Amino acid sequence: MLRKRLGAADLTIPEIGLGTWQYLGGVQALRKGIDLGANFIDTAEAYGTENLVGEVIRDIRNQVFLATKVSPWHFRHKDLFQAVDRSLQALKTDYIDLYQLHWPNSTIPIEETMGAMEELVNQGKIRFIGVSNFSVAELQRAQAALHRSRIVSNQVRYNLVDRSAEVGLLGYCHENKITLIAYSPLARGMHAIRENDPLGILRKVASETGKTEAQVALNWYIARDSVVAIPKADSPEHVEENCGASDWRLTPDQFALLDKEIRYRQRGRVETVLRRLARNTLQRLGRI
Ligand code: NAP
């Protein structure tokens, strides 16, 4: 399993990690991934999988890079402190490697939230600060609110059929040494990718490389220096297949073919702004 530097930190993480949203694979599938070198597990207080992850890592805590997320309605200083303690208890550990703000929350000053995150670093409860679903402007504001720490990662949706992250964000993360953690990298199960591949390019490249279509899709993201991917798989077979997306690279021609021939959408700036306005309004109304 190839590894990549986490942000500007003096540490590497595997380029394929293990997602756990709606994860139903029990201890076995995640342990399989760890055994294969994918020792980076991503969970969140909102997923309901922290307890299970705690079981998975119980005897091997120091071999695992553990990432979880705090929900936006817990971004007040006091709430964030309570949230981290609940997560630590569920995860059965006394530290979290990467603590991520799950979504931006425009109703709570980012200075308050980031101040609390830095206190948690000082207390040793978390090692690194990450964010998720942040735009470039939100990343800049969040970073400016930190005094001693750097944001090491931004977790966003990025797959062959939704390439919105390429509009500004990917380049910004690369230039500023922020790891982009690609979520839903299989577009939630490969169907959407196949539907947008009328020429069967994925199948063609898979046959050329002797890899599977899922491995080719995953390799397409992790070919980028600053990108790691966190597919979710319930079965040990899928986990093993996903881990096999690492340790090799597509040729430039194969990369370009996938780039060009698979249909994708990219949210434009106007759509992105409108979605954020809608989210901010719902947050102000206390709906999310
Ligand atoms: P995903 O990883 O793109 O897709 C998961 C689906 O793909 C499951 O149905 C899984 O089936 C299937 N699958 C896995 N490996 C496969 C393979 N080799 N071949 C064919 N199908 C395969 O979607 P996701 O769960 O949305 O995203 C992954 C992780 O990202 C989440 O678990 C979570 O940790 C994170 N995430 C974060 C956010 C956020 O807001 N930060 C949002 C969404 C997701 P089986 O399970 O049956 O194997």
What is this entry, summarized?
This protein is an alpha/beta fold. It is 42% helix and 16% strand. Bound molecules: NADP nicotinamide-adenine-dinucleotide phosphate (NAP).
Set down the secondary structure blueprint.
Layout: E1 3-5, E2 12-14, E3 18-19, H1 26-35, E4 40-42, H2 50-57, E5 65-70, H3 77-91, E6 96-101, H4 110-123, E7 126-132, H5 136-144, E8 151-157, H6 169-175, E9 179-183, H7 191-195, H8 201-209, H9 213-222, E10 227-229, H10 236-243, H11 252-261, H12 269-284
Parallel strand pairs: 3-4, 4-5, 5-6, 6-7, 7-8, 8-9, 9-10
Antiparallel strand pairs: 1-2
Helix pairs in contact: 1-2, 1-10, 2-3, 3-4, 8-9
The structure holds NADP nicotinamide-adenine-dinucleotide phosphate.
NADP nicotinamide-adenine-dinucleotide phosphate (NAP) binds next to α10.
